[in-house]
Amino acid sequence: MRQQETAKKKQIVPANVWALLSIAVILATFFRFFRLTQTPPGFMFDEASHALDALDIMRGQLMLLSPRLDETAAGYMYFLAGAFQFFGASVPVHRAVTAIFGVLLIPVTFFAAQTLFNKESGQKAAWIAVFSALLPATSFWGITVSRIGFEYIPPLVFALAGLVFFWRGYQDEHWGLLLVAGILTAAEFYLYHASAPFLLVIPTAVVLNWLLSKILPKSPVAQSPVRWKALLFFCLVVAIIDLPLFLALTTGASPEVARSVQLSFFGRATGPAHFVQLLAGSLIAHAKPFLALGGDDRWYANLPERPILDPILAISFVAGTLISLKRIKQLPYLFLLVYWGAMLSPAILTVASSGSPRYFRMTGALPPTYILVSLAWAELYCRLKAWLATSVRADLQKSAPWLALAPFLLVSLIWLPVNTYRDYFLLWANHPQVAFYHDAPIVRLVERMENESDSEALFILPRKATNPRPNYTIDFLYHGSAGFLYLPVDEATVRPTLTVKLSNYQTVHLIANLVSGREKAQRNADPGAILPLLFNRHGQLLETEETDDYTIQTYRLNSNHVDFESHLQTGTPPEFKPLSFVIGDKLKLAGINQRLENNDLFIDLAWQGWTKVVNDYTVFIQLLDNDGNRVAGVDLLPERGFTTLDRQEVMITHYSIPLSDQMRPGAYAVLVGLYYFAGDQLINIGSATLDEALILE
How many other β-carbons are positioned within 10 Å of the β-carbon of residue 203? Predict the structure, then answer.
């Protein structure tokens, strides 16, 4: 009879567990796919880079590393290429790939936790597993990295799946299972190079467990013998598969991994003491998110300073860690501690300018974090259930399992999902800084470009000549009929480049002041304003469109075959007399040529740019008698505005001054000056009296 009751209980508990696992998967699916194309907003530079790599793979290009992003393994891009092949290359398909892995992570974590602790008494392993699935299903941290087209989540799925096969193959020395475990574990390295520490987690845990069994006092828990052949076989499979990527990252004249080394404490510390100082500060900073004391300070991946674990989960995490430390001689508990520490090591060893942790870099520690919490929950649940079964009224004893489970379900199924929904979808997703970091301004610019009706127009995005890298978001999203050109702005080459690139275009849309996470330097791409100068010189500004994200100046050129190198005079003509007057710190009067014909004085002035001119000035020329009185003169706007004057250029202006018959013979001083109007107010820039006077005979 007792055996039948025990069997019945064992049937009921797994049914409850499977139901809760199903709920966890449903919650994970909702939180990872709800409004996936709108949240996060925009389409980030790195996401677009992965998408372009996937398109290259579809065209037949093979790659171990991304040609666009440093140190980025290309494994994830092959999954992306497969999705694009079947469903089309688009933002929703891109993000859906990561979201699917985010959902898969929930049942895989369940089976990994259950496999690790399958020797626990009663149904404890099942409850560790189901709590390990419920908690990350609605985790802000897990949701954030699952809804963006990055490669952080897929390695977790492969690593945990590899763990399941290893654990089962290792116990029975099943070579087939160990082979599958090695393949899955090795594959996660090809998905994200910073997940490399997991390659050492399993052998490190096994060896440490063996060492602890030799060092620590005897434990009442029976120690499993180390199966060295099985471990060696697993490690050999992993090493053989990962060798090509390891060599690609570490060999060559400029190894890819050198950048990570330079960013780490190994590359930045000035000595052992400094290294210890940096490490201590980083350890404290990375402990805070798990203790509900602080967090990532950027809007990029988090509500600033929002911890990974709230106070309830933080206390549970500490309790789970203490349980693992107490049972450290048992391989599953030791493995969990090694797993958590190893996957945090890339983030801990990386120098962050603000000193705060970076949640994306810490993603590898997500599964062990929630399994540690679940250890405490399962322990408390089992104790609470046992206490209720003996301490409450007899008619409530049958409900003891549900009464004990109620607070855990309240937290994991109601409290956490509601808080996460508020924090992620209402607060984080709608903040302007999130749109900025996720390149939403670039997406809006592309939408504006897509609406261009003139197929013969050309959009120009200036780039710094020293960093002409394209914007991958634009490259992936923009498929408009109007032309688009990245233009490195270099004074020596920009004119001939424009002459060639703008052939057959007469309408030019010049993009400026573009702001987003990866376009902070675009404002300084054309510091000398060379492009507006050239377009004004050879055309006309039609309109200026200003938004918070960008400015577009639309020019109509004089023709669709403009020679931008023409009319660029860099010296005074030989017939001019050299001068060197700087008027108002704005323009240099570099030369003059004057001649008398009948009763007219013809004066040609050579102007040279001195500093950036922001106004078009009127030139006045006055002839003054010995008493300083004006006897003749002219005020005239040049045919070309001074704002179009290049600093390397000399511009010639021409003037004709009628001379009165009443002017007596003698010397007349020549005064040249500049002014402009601000509204109705005349602003005098300055003037200069030329060294040689006009002599009338």
Answer: 15
Q: Is the pLDDT of residue 10 over 50?
A: no
User: Strand, helix or coil at 671?
Assistant: strand
pLDDT at 372 over 80: yes
How does DSSP classify residue 250?
H
Omega of the bond leading into 496 within 30 degrees of 0 (cis): no
CA gap 168, 230 in Å, rounded: 11
pTM higher than 0.85, yes or no? Answer: no
Spatial distance between the Cα atoms of 141 and 132, rounded to a whole number of angstroms: 14
Encoded tokens for 260: 């990570």
Average pLDDT, the chain: 89
Alpha helices (H) along 327-365: 331-348
DSSP 310-332: -HHHHHHHHHHHHHHHHTTTSHH
Residue 89 is classified by DSSP as S
3-state secondary structure 511-549: EECCCCCCCHHHHHCCCCCHHHHHHHHCEEEEEEEECCC
pLDDT tens digits for 184-238?
999 999 999 889 999 999 999 999 998 888 887 665 555 678 899 999 999 999 9
Number of residues assigned to the chain? 697
Spatial distance between the Cα atoms of 153 and 359, rounded to a whole number of angstroms: 12
Sign of CA dihedral 472, 94, 413, 397: negative
Q: Which residues does 629 contact at the CB level (< 8 Å), separation at least 6?
A: none
Query: Measured between alpha carbons, how far is 51 from 473 in angstroms, rounded to an integer?
Result: 9
Structure tokens at 664: 């007596």
Cβ atoms < 10 Å from Cβ of 693: 15
Q: Taking the mean position of all CA atoms in its chain, how far away is CA 663?
A: 73
Residue 505 tokens read as 């275009």
Alpha-helical (H) ranges within 34-149 are 45-58, 75-87, 91-116, 124-137, 140-146
pLDDT tens for residues 288-347?
999 999 988 888 889 988 999 999 999 999 999 999 999 998 999 999 999 999 999 999
Closest by CA position to 532, among listed 467, 487, 577: 487
Kindly state the helix (H) or strand (E) to which residue 632 belongs, with its residue range: strand 630-636
Q: Which long-range contacts (CB under 8 A, 24 or more apart) does 257-262 make?
A: 257/71, 257/193, 259/70, 259/71, 260/71, 260/194, 260/350
Sheet with 650-658, edge to edge strand ranges: 577-583, 587-597, 600-609, 650-658
Among the residue ranges 160-164, 350-354, 389-393, 537-541, the one predicted with the least confidence is 350-354
- How far apart CA 657 and CA 596 sit, in angstroms, is 10
